[in-house]
Amino acid sequence: MSTTTSLRIAKFGGTSVADFDAMNRSADIVLADPAVRIVVLSASAGITNLLVALAEGVAQEQRDVHLEKIRHIQYAIIDRLSHPQVIREEIDRMLENVARLSEAAALATSNALTDELVSHGELMSTLLFVEILRQRQVSAEWFDVRKIMRTNDRFGRAEPDCDTLSALTRSQLQPRLAESLIITQGFIGSEAKGRTTTLGRGGSDYTAALLGEALNVDRIDIWTDVPGIYTTDPRVVPTAHRIDQITFEEAAEMATFGAKVLHPATLLPAVRSDIPVFVGSSKDPSAGGTLVCNKTENPPLFRALALRRKQTLITLHSLNMLHARGFLAEVFSILARHNISVDLITTSEVNVALTLDTTGSTSAGDGLLSSAMLTELSSLCRVEVEENLSLVALIGNQLSQACGVGKEVFGVLEPFNIRLICYGASSHNLCFLVPGNDAERVVQTLHHSLFE
Ligand code: ADP
Ligand code: ASP
Ligand code: MG
After folding, report:
1. What is the pLDDT of residue 350?
2. C-alpha of residue 411 to centroid of ligand 3, in Å
């Protein structure tokens, strides 16, 4: 790939392709920047949730309601096209597949079936977007990303094979960029046997970053429904303000700890290949956005707050732990056998407290507690499980080197019950658990005190 000509990839999330007007606004953004030669799309807003519900296997009556909602969202776009006939037939074929797969899911669901089913959201939105561009006389080509996005077979949260992606991108995708604008799907991939996989909820951001890296682009543009990355979720704190420039490390911590604006893995390829990421609003592109890059001027001590809901805390208690060796190794091997990824951990002499990373998979139960795992752990120690907690993360710089951070943070949180605290492992974050019902008030209180 020549590095002298500028090449960009643009990704549009669900609300940016929600309906005919949103798709046209997104098309305007693409056409305004000649460097954008490839576009990655999510499913139209609401569709993936409906498909996930269908994949869980619902009774016929409910199934028909969901299918009708999906058809309604996609038909509302088709009905505004000037030549709708051919695309209507294509979408109808997709909808027939969705109906057939939903019936199968009602009889017996599987993670592979779920991924096959939910992939139709992105397949349909990309077909519709190509049609919108063509009707605007733009030469656009629909590209099935599964031809190049090879993953393992961990359905629901599949991991991409970057070497294969890079080789297949060179042979199958890159030559096409000179011919026409390429429109492709986020979120989906395929495993060795050719079965469809997904990269986890919100995974289209990750797709864009992976393709951006494979194509050696000079910027990855993420268009969403907010004009940038804010000091915290503006839905939780309306007075949150935009961060104009943020480093990869800070933004990656935010994404990992729950800032939904970027999928947690998005920044891995960007950091690896030092590609700046722009985040802006497709509703208001002139409002500007946030640039995520290698370095920023004067990184502040406190940068942002992130919130991750539905956290489970497991406390393990064993007197055998006192001066013992290998206890934690045993605990971790049980968790690994059950495919559980541990998120946070603190220990005392005879207790270990840990949280599980349960975010993002489309597969029911993936990464969650199972009774088999709890039985195995109980043979080793006493196990307590606490649910409905939320994780609040304060993201910043040199946090563990600064004095008085603990007082500044926890001083204002006196009215709240704070559970496990993690501080010191990373200089970029301090995080703690609070009861789920207090989470928003905790974030609002901290934001007011540290950022306003
Ligand atoms: P898309 O469908 O475009 O991928 P998402 O819903 O996944 O959009 O992400 C955008 C949402 O992320 C925003 O509407 C906002 O509520 C939420 N969000 C959470 N934390 C932040 C943050 N720090 N800055 C901006 N948005 C955030
Ligand atoms: N459509 C998928 C989801 O809703 C992927 C994405 O939007 O990024 O999770
Ligand atoms: Mg998203």
Report:
1. 83
2. 34
CA–CA separation, 273 and 374 (whole Å) = 41
For residue 319, what pLDDT is reported? 77
Q: Which residues line ligand 1 (CB under 6 A)?
A: 13-16, 42, 202, 224-226, 229-230, 232-235, 254, 259-261, 304
351 forms beta bridges with 317
Q: Which of 12, 185, 205, 224 to mutate to test the pocket of ligand 1 (most atoms within 8 A of CB)?
A: 224
Q: How many CB atoms lie within 10 A of CB 175?
A: 9
What is the Cβ-side half-sphere exposure of residue 170, based on CA atoms within 13 angstroms? 8
Residue 42 Cβ inside 6 Å of ligand 2? The answer reads: yes
**What percent of the chain lies above the pLDDT cut of 90?**
83
Task: State the sign of the Cα–Cα–Cα–Cα dihedral 164, 167, 170, 173.
Answer: negative
In the chain, what are the domain boundaries?
A: 8-225, 303-451
> Three-state SS for 136?
coil
Each residue of 366-403: pLDDT tens digit?
A: 656 788 889 999 988 999 999 899 999 999 999 988 89
pLDDT in tens, 267-277: 999 999 999 99
Is residue 106 scored above 60 in pLDDT? yes
Give domain 8-225's CATH superfamily. Answer: Acetylglutamate kinase-like (3.40.1160.10)
Ligand 3 centroid distance, CA of 163 (Å): 25
Q: What's the CA gap between 262 and 266, in Å, rounded?
A: 7
Architecture of domain 303-451: 2-Layer Sandwich (3.30)
Please give the Cα distance from 329 to 85 (Å, whole number): 61
